Amino acid sequence: MDDTFTLLPLHLDPTSKAISCPSLSSAPIATELALLNATHRSLLTLDTPHSVPPPPLPLNPKRSAAIQKMREQGNASLARKGGTASAANAQAYTQEAIKLYSYALEMALTRLPWEPASIVRDEVAILMSNRAQAHMGLQSWPEGAADAETSVELKPAPGNGKAWWRRGKCLAEMGRWEEAAEWIARGIETGGDESAELKALGVEVQAQLAKQRERETR
Predict the structure, then answer these.
(1) Smallest Cα–Cα separation from 161: which of 119, 133, 138, 135?
(2) Per DSSP, what are the bridge partners of residue 12?
(3) How far apart are the C-alpha atoms of 136 and 146, rounded to whole Å?
(4) Per-residue model confidence as pLDDT tens digits over 136-155
């Protein structure tokens, strides 16, 4: 049986070299062409001889160093927040930390397509957990809960106990006791021997949950 194909009326922009199909309205084709053009732009930015893609495993060391530097600067901002007596200064340091973590996240999430996805997951998991802590410093509980949950989704195994605790704490601060209790139970089951702080938080949540149920039965 002969193979068949559909000849598409593709257009190559003479300046940008981007490929498009203006005379055909198709979401799948538009998506594929967008990915192709994005890959082409990535190849043009390569800092390698003759713009040849590197092997699939090596990371861009400059980007890794920049991500690590911004994370450390964010941590330093949070540390300075703890050393000031001024509420305004503390808030400014915390907001600066959130900004730095967000910049680092953007860099991690825009790594080139052939760089290992496992590295991106680890970087994003750590940065999301860090940013959750910063949101908690501003009492932005929903934002902190969302970032901590994302961190756990990317790295649920032992070694990410802080993210489990941070989302549990945010849920408790919002008075979502049942959700907090369920989340903490999952974290204790997953976290192994790192769950001491999570267990202590679980005791507090269970006490508040018991009070809530007592009030509801009156």
Answers:
(1) 133
(2) 19
(3) 11
(4) 999 999 999 999 999 999 99
Say if residue 64 is exposed, middle or buried (CB neighbours under 10 Å; 0-12, 13-18, 19+): middle
Residue range 99-123, pLDDT digits in tens: 999 999 999 999 988 888 889 999 9
60: exposed, middle or buried (Cβ count in 10 Å: 0-12, 13-18, 19+) = middle
Q: Report which of 179, 145, 137, 142 is spatially closest to residue 164, judged by C-alpha positions.
A: 145
Rounded Cα distance, 54 and 47, in Å = 10
51 conformational bin, left if phi > 0, alpha if psi -120 to 50, beta if neither: left
Dihedral (Cα; 60, 62, 65, 68), 10-degree rounding: -70
Amino acid at 5: F
* Whole-angstrom distance, CA of residue 157 vs CA of residue 138: 28
DSSP lists the bridge partners of residue 19 as: 12
Token pair for 184: 């903490």
